[in-house]
Write a structure and sequence with these properties.
4 strands, two-stranded antiparallel sheet, about 75% helix, two-stranded antiparallel ribbon, 13 helices, globular
Length: about 350
């Protein structure tokens, strides 16, 4: 009897020890989320909101969508910029054709249209994978940009070939358009990325996420145990494209204000891919860490020479910035191939054990 009670006590103690870190993490996330909604709109100036925080949130949403496809489902994609362009041009057409439509609904519908396009270009993943799939998605990038360039209907036959965000309101506050405040656009971008990050976190923990990871690790074995490759891969492409489509709509409506197809070229696809690689494949947190790294490091490298009083020509400064930026990416990949998310996890575990060495 004593042994049984002791065993129950040990089991209960171990369960409490396992639950306590989870509660700590959830409380920490809630506090960070509350601070993110309250502090920057009140304390940050327009430069930090417009040039740093808003693009960070939009890039994080796009990186999150690509991470679901590449990190969790194992399907390599180089067409992120094209799917973001689909979302942006869809939002422009919907907002101009139906001016009474709520802008939040416009963003969601743009994501659905991008998801349908992602389903079409995800069909080759049923037969090819790896490098060949990357080339196929790269073809989608070039095709979509070519389509938006050659068909003037997408820009409402504007001679400039650009799309411009119209003025739209949410609960009486202007959130898009040239007269909208940076604070309002920041709150909308933060609300979207917070909601979609929560959906993604629960998605990868459930049956869909387990199916993606089974296909990623051993596709033949996954098919043997009952995972359907057709449905699983196409669902990954659809959800990833949905996230990227919403991010593309926000990219124009909340960040740039107006854009042409050059804003969605192959450089944007590689930029989002670097965010996923640096942040950590198969990690929701890694998408945010990678986006923060890609957004903040160039700003720091641009201002660093002025901080130390070293005047440099602009052309030379840009070249040095690219070299240092590439070297930092290579350094992080060598030190920790699993990205910044793994480094954060290691640091968090060490802090929990501090000051004890074991």
């Amino acid at each position: 009897m004593i042994y049984r009670e002791t065993g129950q006590f040990k089991s209960s103690y171990a369960s409490d020890q396992a639950i306590f870190p989870i509660l700590q993490d959830r409380i920490f996330v809630l506090l960070v989320g509350a601070a993110a909604f309250a502090v920057p709109p009140l304390a940050a100036n327009d430069y930090w909101l417009q040039a740093v925080l808003i693009p960070f949130l939009i890039y994080a949403l796009a990186a999150l969508g690509l991470n679901l496809l590449t990190g969790y489902a194992g399907q390599v994609s180089l067409g992120t910029g094209g799917f973001m362009a689909v979302g942006a041009y869809s939002a422009f057409k919907l907002s101009t054709a139906f001016p009474w439509l709520n802008i939040i609904l416009v963003f969601l519908l743009s994501g659905l249209i991008a998801a349908l396009v992602g389903l079409v270009f995800g069909i080759p993943s049923l037969r090819i994978k790896g490098f060949y799939l990357a080339v196929a998605t790269l073809a989608s990038q070039f095709f979509l940009i070519w389509l938006f360039n050659k068909v003037p209907w997408f820009v409402n036959y504007a001679s400039s070939g650009t799309i411009t965000a119209p003025e739209r309101f949410v609960v009486g506050v202007m959130v898009t358009g040239p007269r909208s405040s940076a604070e309002a656009r920041y709150v909308v971008a933060l609300a979207f990325v917070a909601a979609f990050a929560l959906v993604a976190k629960n998605l990868v923990r459930g049956r869909v996420g387990r199916s993606w990871m089974a296909i990623r690790d051993r596709d033949i074995a996954a098919e043997i145990i009952g995972v359907r490759p057709l449905r699983t891969k196409l669902l990954a492409f659809a959800i990833s494209s949905f996230y990227c489509g919403v991010a593309g709509a926000e990219f124009v409506f909340l960040y740039l204000g107006s854009a042409e197809t050059l804003a969605f070229d192959i450089n944007l696809s590689f930029l989002v891919l670097f965010m996923v690689i640096v942040g950590g494949l198969g990690s929701v947190l890694g998408s945010f860490l990678g986006a923060g790294f890609i957004v903040l490091v160039p700003i720091f490298l641009t201002n660093a020479p002025h901080l130390i009083g070293l005047p440099l020509p602009v052309a030379l400064q840009k070249q040095i910035e690219l070299m240092v930026f590439g070297a930092l990416i290579i350094f992080f990949l060598i030190v920790e191939p699993n990205g910044l998310a793994r480094l954060w996890q290691i640091a968090k575990e060490k802090l929990r054990l501090w000051p004890f060495p074991h």
